[in-house]
Specification:
106 residues; mainly alpha; two-stranded parallel sheet; 63% helix
Length: 106
């Protein structure tokens, strides 16, 4: 089996981070797989990333509908979705954080 190039980079002290966040990879186990099998060390997010995630998939449709039915504004919906996803990602990365003392390149 060929050596995983991402793990090889990690061996050189490089930390690989995912430059997007999307609910589908959080709930499907894909993010955990990337951490376990590819040595993923972190994930970034910002308003542009969330805009792309929300507009580019159906992962958020049910949550948006439910929040809209509760009378939430567009900003409240966005903030709720973003906070939920960041919390989920942080929970998934927590064992790595604890294992490395916050220095994910170890």
């Amino acid at each position: 089996m060929a050596e995983n190039p991402l793990l090889k980079l990690r061996g050189y002290g490089q930390s690989i981070w995912l430059d997007f966040i999307q609910r589908g990879i959080l709930v499907s186990g894909e993010l955990q797989r990337l951490i376990d099998e590819d040595g993923l060390g972190g994930e970034t997010s910002n308003p542009a990333i969330f805009d792309k995630a929300i507009a580019g998939s159906h992962d958020y449709d049910e949550a948006i509908t439910a929040l809209a039915r509760q009378g939430k504004s567009a900003l409240e919906i966005y903030e709720t979705l973003a906070i939920e996803d960041v919390q989920r990602a942080a929970d998934i990365f927590r064992p790595l954080f604890e294992r490395t003392g916050g220095n994910d390149s170890n």
